[in-house]
Structures are given as structure tokens and as C-alpha cells.
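Recall from the previous lesson that a structure prediction takes nothing but the amino acid sequence as input. Here we apply that procedure to Phage tail protein from Halomonas hydrothermalis. The sequence below is the only information supplied.
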Amino acid sequence: MKLSVETLAASGGFVPRKPVEETIQWTHEGQEFEATVFVLPLSYATAKSDIVASQLQTDPLAARIAHCIVDEDGKPVFTVDDITGEADPERGPLSNSLTHELLRVIGKVSKLGKRPTSSRTKKSSGMNSSSTASAGAPSKKPKSASATQSSNAG
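The prediction returns the following C-alpha cells.
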């Protein structure tokens, strides 16, 4: 394939800015909670957000969550300060359990950790290094007496 906008569009090279609905579950002080969240898949916009967060020396995980967790219309639910607890020190930061759950659904929606399956077969270079044709002649080992011959001798 030759790289072009058209071939990339046809092969999934662009990520629609459409939030994906997911259900999350987390626990806090022994109590279980469940919520519906909307998640934007990772994209160029996320990479840019990650770089800006790095330049501003803000928390990269908080920036990732703030960028990807949105409402139904794609508008952010959190600010970085909401996530880190700086927006309201009395309320504090997101809980560990909720943070992990949000990162999990971001990874799920972005299909992180999974390789795409392909129906294409790999092209062979024409040489197979494991082929017997590329191997040298077999070594000649001296034949030893079998175990039955040696046990009959004594």
C-alpha cells in the first residue's frame, strides 16, 4: 500500500473522535461502585496532550485520563487538577481503584496490548534457514554396540 490520506482512511489510520461507552466498576472503603463512562480512543490528539502535559510538568497519567474520559458529547469530565486533587484539596485525588479502572477502559477502547489479526500471509524471501537444503551433510557418527549386545557378553 502506498501511504496516502485515502489509503489510511480505508485501513483504519484515523481515529474518529466519537466517545465509546463503557461500564466501570471500582471499590472504595469496601463498597463497590459502578458507572457508565465515555472514552475517547488514543490518537494524535492524545499524543499532543501527553507532550503538552510533559512540557507543563503536569502529571502525565492525570492528563491522559482528563483527555480521554469525556461526556457523551466528547467534552472532558475532569481537569488534571480534579484528578490529582489540586482542584479541591478537601476532596482529594481520584482513588487508586478508580484511577486503575479508568486507565483500563482507556486501554480497552484503544485496543492496547492486542495485535491486530491479519488474513494476509507473510511473504517469504525464498530462503528458509531451517530447510534441509541449506544444511550441510549429516555428520558420520561411529555406530556403538547396542545395550542388548553388551548385556549378553558377560
